[in-house]
Amino acid sequence: MTTLDSIVVAQVDALLEGEPNPVTNLANASALLYNTMADLNWCGFYLYSKQTQTLDLGPFQGQVACMHIKPGSGVVGTSFASGQSLLVPDVHAFAGHIACDAASNSEVVVPVVVDGTCIGILDLDSPSLNRFTAADQEVLTAFAAALAKHLDAAALALVY
Ligand code: SME
Question: What is the CA radius of gyration of the chain?
């Protein structure tokens, strides 16, 4: 499996240029990654809602998924609570992993930080064990930073 090419960072920046709607931007960002990376079964966002105080399902590609995840729960909630990205080579070995799609065997999650605040988590799942590398994690971190520049937190807070 080849590492995710860092050109995807420039691609997402160009793709979202001038679009103010954060949901539109998150939707296309998930589609870009899902169609760029091989061997994924899910790719999308969980966005923190101040109203529900949970991470609510955002734009994604893949099978239907859990709609609400509590901060601290599962891979996504653990990443949100710690503010750290996580590489999970085998989801079955991660205590508290939330199985949305039974096909998932490995996962990588990256916080999306807008103006210093984590607004949610980018989550990618693969049916293969050990699918993601530390180099993928680095590119995805840069991807999340490039995407964040196209996200208006105030506009997002109207829906999340
Ligand atoms: N596996 C995640 C839940 C989200 S699905 O992977 C789409 C978790 O443990 O938080």
Answer: 14
